C-alpha cells in the first residue's frame, strides 16, 4: 500500500501552505505549537503521521525561530514514524552565508544544511537559492525551483516595448542574462561599490538604458537600498520606466519606505515570504501551484523538470 501524503504548515507559512494544499487537492494537517514564557516552544502533530509522506512548509524568515520550529517539526515527524519527511522551504534563510568571504566567519548555509539532516529530513524543496551551490551542502535530494515560473509570465503580460533586463550587481548577471534571453531583450548591469553590509556606495550602469523600459531582476530584496539606488540611477540615465522583480520579499528595515520614495513603478515578488505591509507599488504573485505540482510529482516519483521555464 502506498504511503499517504500529508502537508503541514509552520507558523510563518500557514497562508502559503493552505494555498499549496488547496492546489494539490489536499488539506493542511493539524499541528500545534506551545510557547513558553522564556521563549522556548514545542511543536506537535495533532493527527497520526505514521507511515505517511510528510511535507512541512516553512519559509525561514526571520530565520532563527522559524528554522528552529522547522527542525522540531522534522524531528517530531520522524519520532512519530513518518515514512518520509520533506522540508518545503520556499525562502531558505542564511543562504547568503554560502562561503567564507573573509577570515573567521561561519558558513551559515552549510550549518543549516547539517542541522536539517541531523533532524532527519529526507528531502528539501526550495526556491531561488541565493547561491546555487548550496544544493551541494546536502546529502539528501534538493529540488530547486525558480520564481521565474510566475515572474516571467507577468513581465510578458506587460508587453513592454524597448525592454531591457538589468542586474542590480555583477553577481546577478547570470540570472539577468537568462531572463533577457527568454524575453528576447537587451541587458544592462548596475555596477555598485558596497561600503559595508546593506550599505551601497557609488553605482553606475553598463549598457544602454536611455528611452528603455527597464526590469531589474534579483533573487531577493532586503533593505531595498541597492534596488532603489539602481532604479534612481537608471531613471537619471534616461530610462522610460523602471520595475523590479524578485523572488523573495525580505523587505527589512526601511525597505518599504525606500520603495515608496524611489523611481520604481512597481516591485513584483512571489509569496515565498508574507508581506508585512501593503503598498500600491508592491505586488505578490502566488507560487502555490508550482510547489503543489512539484510535491505531487515527488510523491508520485515523477519528473519535476516540466515545472521549470528557465
From TrEMBL:
The active site is at residue 192. Its main location: cytoplasm. Binds 2 Mg(2+) ions per subunit. Its EC number is 2.7.6.1. ATP binds at residues 38-40, 96-97. SMART domains: Pribosyltran_N (SM01400). Mg(2+) binds at residues 130, 169. This is Ribose-phosphate pyrophosphokinase.
Amino acid at each position: 500500500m502506498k504511503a499517504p501524503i500529508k502537508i503541514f504548515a509552520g507558523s510563518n507559512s500557514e497562508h502559503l501552505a493552505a494555498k499549496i494544499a488547496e492546489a494539490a487537492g489536499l488539506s493542511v494537517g493539524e499541528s500545534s505549537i506551545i510557547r513558553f514564557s522564556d521563549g522556548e516552544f514545542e511543536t506537535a502533530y495533532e493527527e497520526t503521521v505514521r507511515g505517511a509522506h510528510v511535507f512541512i512548509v516553512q519559509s525561514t524568515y526571520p530565520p532563527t525561530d522559524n528554522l528552529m520550529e522547522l527542525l522540531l517539526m522534522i524531528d517530531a515527524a520522524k519520532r512519530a514514524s513518518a515514512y518520509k519527511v520533506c522540508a518545503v522551504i520556499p525562502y531558505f534563510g542564511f543562504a547568503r552565508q554560502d562561503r567564507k568571504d573573509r577570515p573567521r566567519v561561519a558558513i551559515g548555509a552549510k550549518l543549516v544544511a547539517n542541522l536539517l539532516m541531523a533532524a532527519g529530513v529526507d528531502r528539501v524543496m526550495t526556491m531561488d537559492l541565493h547561491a546555487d551551490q548550496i544544493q551541494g551542502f546536502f546529502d539528501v535530494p534538493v529540488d530547486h525551483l525558480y520564481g521565474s515560473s510566475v515572474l516571467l509570465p507577468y513581465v510578458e503580460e506587460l508587453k513592454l516595448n524597448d525592454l531591457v533586463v538589468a542586474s542590480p550587481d555583477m553577481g546577478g548577471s547570470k540570472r539577468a542574462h537568462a531572463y533577457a534571453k527568454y524575453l528576447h531583450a537587451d541587458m544592462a548591469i548596475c555596477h555598485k561599490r558596497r561600503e559595508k553590509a546593506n550599505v551601497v556606495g557609488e553605482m553606475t550602469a553598463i549598457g544602454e538604458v536611455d528611452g528603455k523600459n527597464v526590469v531589474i531582476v534579483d533573487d531577493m530584496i532586503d533593505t531595498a537600498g541597492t534596488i532603489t539606488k539602481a532604479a534612481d540611477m537608471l531613471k537619471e540615465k534616461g530610462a522610460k520606466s523602471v520595475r523590479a522583480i524578485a523572488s523573495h520579499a525580505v523587505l527589512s528595515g526601511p525597505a518599504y519606505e525606500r520603495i515608496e520614495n524611489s523611481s520604481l513603478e512597481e516591485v513584483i515578488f512571489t509569496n515565498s515570504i508574507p508581506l508585512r505591509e501593503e503598498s500600491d507599488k508592491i505586488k505578490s504573485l502566488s507560487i502555490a501551484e508550482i510547489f503543489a505540482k512539484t510535491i505531487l510529482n515527488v510523491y508520485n516519483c515523477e519528473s519535476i523538470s516540466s515545472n521549470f521555464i528557465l
